[in-house]
Amino acid sequence: MRLNILNAIARGLLYLHQDSRLSIIHRDLKASNILLDNNMNPKISYFDLAKMSGSDQVEGSTSIIAGTHGYMAPECAIDGLFSVKSDVFSFGVLLLEIVSGKKNKAFTYQGRNHNLIDNAWRLWKDSTPKKLIDPCLVNTCNIFQVVRCIQISLLCLQHHLDDRPDMTSVVLMLTSENSLPNPKEPGFLIRMVSSEGEQSSTKQGSSINDVTVSLLNAR
Q1: Which key words are in the record (predicted)?
Q2: pLDDT tens-digit series, residues 42-65
Q3: Which domain holds residue 186?
Q4: Rounded to the nearest 5 degrees, what angle is found at the Cα of 149, between the Cα atoms of 145 and 155?
Q5: Angle at CA 39, nearest 5°, toward 37 and 42?
């Protein structure tokens, strides 16, 4: 069921990026913006931050850094640069959350300032990605398939946008068994928010209740 949900979200993003009359960059893809109907079919919702462009334009910039802490790509959170590849980064976070059953921002490892992305990369380097899988899935899922999803998520989470696949490639990777490239170290820009609600980095704003945030650059 989780894989079917992921496949449908990926196809939805592919439609927005490539198949719709105007290319649409969502800019705020996250779990709370995915609606499920009675048959567990997902629908991408909340397009308040979305950007539409011509079919030949796949990126842009803005002086207002908008998105949700924990899902924003590094280039978006730092420089206000957005593209279809920033949506790919957000999809990578969402993929990790669905596989692990944990939220990126709420995850900690041994009391240290590690988020879910950090932990996924640590386990991947240690050749123990199975430890990331939601315990309620371990005895019923196809382990090879889920580990493949973890690898796909790490490819989506690459720090440099040119290293990330586009959604056409993501859909193909999710629906085939073709060999995958090895991921490089992902972007670790998004860090935990302290229990007092203070941010660990002065470069970003955040919200501890997972709502959308917008920051203005100083003139």
Answers
A1: ATP-binding, Disulfide bond, Glycoprotein, Kinase, Nucleotide-binding, Serine/threonine-protein kinase, Signal, Transferase
A2: 999 988 888 876 544 455 555 466
A3: 58-216
A4: 145
A5: 50
Instruction: Give pLDDT, residue 201.
Output: 37
**Paired strand residues for 144:** none
Cα–Cα dist 96/116, whole Å: 8
Q: Which residue is it, tokens 């917008």?
A: 214
* 37 included as an active-site residue: no
Are residues 68 and 30 in contact, defined by beta-carbon separation less than 8 angstroms?
Answer: yes
Whether the per-residue pLDDT at 102 is higher than 60: the answer is yes
Answer whether residue 200 is part of any domain. yes
Query: What pLDDT is attached to residue 204?
Result: 40
Please give the share of the chain, as a percent, with pLDDT higher than 70: 74
Inside any domain, residue 196: yes
Residue type for position 109: Y
d(CA 123, CA 102): 15
Given a cut of 80, is residue 19 above it in pLDDT? yes
- Find the CATH number of the domain harbouring 201: 1.10.510.10
Report if residue 206 sits inside a domain: yes
Would 177 be classed as within a structural domain? yes
- List of residues 6+ apart from 70 with CB closer than 8 A: 30, 93, 103, 104, 105, 115, 190, 210
Write down the catalytic residue from 19, 28, 48, 134. 28
Bridge partners, residue 52, by sequence = 24
| Number of separate domains in the chain | 1
Q: What pLDDT was estimated at residue 105?
A: 72
